[in-house]
Amino acid sequence: MANFEIVAREDFSDVTYLLEVRHPLMARAAKPGQFVIVMLTARSERIPLTIADFDGHKGTVTLVIQAVGKTTRQMQQECRVGTSLHAMVGPMGIPSPTTKAKKVVCVGGGLGVAPIFPQARGFKDSGAYVIAVLGFRTKSLVFWRDKFASCCDELILCTNDGSAGIKGLITDGIKVALDRHADIDEVVAIGPPVMMKACADATRPHQIKTIVSVNPIMVDGTGMCGGCRVKVGGQVKFACVDGPDFDGHLVDFDDLMVRLRRYTTVEQAAQERWSESCRMTRQVGPSALDALARGSAEQSELLELPELNDALGG
Question: CA torsion sign, 27 to 30 to 31 to 36?
Answer without folding.
Answer: negative
